[in-house]
C-alpha cells in the first residue's frame, strides 16, 4: 500500500452497552466501504471467535481498516469494534489508546444503560472525540427524542451532535462515516519522525509465533527492518506486516497514523507484552506509557483433568493469556487436584469465556474450582468491625423513568449471581456496572471442613459470619452425596475454629464386591478385586477416610456446572 497522508487517517472505536448494536454497525461500515460483500451471511463478521458466535457477544476487540471516499478525497479509517460487557472493559480501554475518537452507540429503545455511562467516561478521560449514535430507530418503541435528551443531560453533549441510525437496515449509516471524517481529528505524528509503535493487542500463531497488533505513532516500518522491543530491549527482524481488513492483508510498509499487524519472529509469549513500544534499532525513542495492568476481581483454580496434561495446559494458558492480558496467572497446587494454577479474572463471564476458549481453541479440558474474591486478612484477635451490607452512595435521575444508583457492595455479595437476580427482579430493565472500591473491613470467618475430625485443607473457605451456617451446611451436604459409604461411620463437619456449625453423617457399610460371584470363578473374582483396587487409586485418604477425587471437584466446582 502506498503511503497514506496522516491527515487522511481516522482511528476510532465503537463503544456501547451490551447488545446496543456495535457489531451490526461495524458490518454495515465494512459493507459500505467494500471491505466485505453485502450478503445475508455476513453477520457480525468481526466476532470471529467460536465463543463469540455461540454466545452472540463480543469478547475480543477487533480491528478493520477501511477505505472511504469523501468529497473526492480517499480516507483510511481504522475501526476497532469492542466488547460491551463490563467483564471485558479492559479490551475497551486498551483499544481507545489506538484511537482519537469513538462512536458511542445507544439503543433508541433502551436508552442510556450502565455500560454506556462506563464507556463514555473511558473515552472522555482519554480525551477522545465522542460521536453519539442512536441506533435501532426502526424499532416500534424507539424514542430517539428521549434518548437525545438523556445524552444531553447525562453527558453534556448537545443533542444536535447525535446521529440517528438503524444499523440493521443501514438507515443513515453514511452520515456516521461522514461524521467520523469531519469530526474526529487525524492522529498526531508524522512519517518523518523515528519509527515508534504501540503494541495494543497480540495473539499466538502456531507457525509464525506472536502476531502483534500495533498503532504506528510515528515514522514507518518495512519488512526486513530491525526493530527493538522497549520492554525486553531485544532486537527482532520484521518478517511480515500489513493491515487488518479485517483479515490480514500484507503490505510493504506501515506508516505513522496506521493501525496494523506485525510478525517479527517472537516465539515466546513473554516477548510480546501488551503496551510495549517498538522502535527502529538505530533510532531509540522514549517508551510509551503502556497500560495500567487490569485488576482481577474473581479468582479460581484451574487444574488439568489428568496430571499428564499439565505441560499442554500450561502452554495453552500462556498462549491464551497473550490474547487476553487481563487474566493473571499464578502457579498453585492442591493435594486433591495436583499441580495447577490460580487465575484472576475481571468477572464471572470473563472466567467462563476464558474456560470455553481454552476448550475450543486449545482443545484443553480443565477442572475449574469455585470462584472466590480476594480478601485482606488482618491478624488480630479483637476489633473486627461488623459486616457491612450495601451502602448507597448516590442517586441520579437520567430521565423520568430511569435512575442511576451507586452503591458500595462487598464484592463477594455480587460476584456470583447478583447480576442474574437483578435482571430477573427488574424484568430485564436494570443494568449493572461495577468498579473496585478497595478493601473494607468485614466480619469474616475461616471455615474448615472436617472428615472424622481431620481438616480438609482444600475445602477451607472464607465466609461472612451471617452466611457461615448455610454455606457450611451446603458444603457438608454436597460432600455427603459424593463420598461413598465405607466400613465405618464418617462424620462430615463444618467448623469455625473449634465450634462445629454443621454436620452430616455417612453410615458405615461394607461393600463386598464379590457378593455377586457365586461359585468359584477365580478369574472373575480377581478382576473385580483389581477394579476395586483401581478405584482406590482415584481416592485420597484423609485420616482414615477414602475420598474420591471427584468429590473435591463437585464441592469446589461451580454449582451450575
Ligand atoms: N431492530 C434493530 N435491531 C438491531 C439494530 N442493530 C442491531 N440490532 C440487533 O441487536 C442485537 C445486538 O446487536 P449486536 O450488533 O450484536 O450488538 P453489540 O453491541 O455488538 O453486542 P456486544 O458486542 O455483545 O456488546 C442483534 O440481534 C442485532 O440484530 C437495528 O438497527 N435495529
Automatic annotation (TrEMBL):
Q: Which residues bind GTP?
A: 16-23, 81-85, 135-138
Locations listed in the record? Mitochondrion inner membrane
The similarity comment for this entry is: Belongs to the GTP-binding elongation factor family. LepA subfamily.
Top-rank taxon of the source lineage equals: Eukaryota
Q: Which GO terms describe its molecular function?
A: GTP binding; GTPase activity; mitochondrial ribosome binding
By what name is this protein known?
Answer: GTP binding elongation factor GUF1
Which residue intervals define the domain Tr-type G in the entry?
7-188
Keyword GTP-binding attributed: yes
GO-annotated biological processes:
positive regulation of translation; translation
Species, as recorded: Fundulus heteroclitus
Is the keyword Amino-acid biosynthesis in the record? no
Instruction: Give membrane topology per the record.
Output: Peripheral membrane protein
InterPro entries noted in UniProt: EF-4, EFG_III/V, EFG_V-like, EFTu-like_2, G_TR_CS, LepA_C_sf, LepA_CTD, LepA_IV
Q: Which CDD domains match?
A: EF4_II, EF4_III, LepA, lepA_C
**What keywords is this UniProt entry annotated with?**
GTP-binding, Hydrolase, Membrane, Mitochondrion, Mitochondrion inner membrane, Nucleotide-binding, Protein biosynthesis
Query: Pfam families, alphabetically?
Result: EFG_C, GTP_EFTU, GTP_EFTU_D2, LepA_C
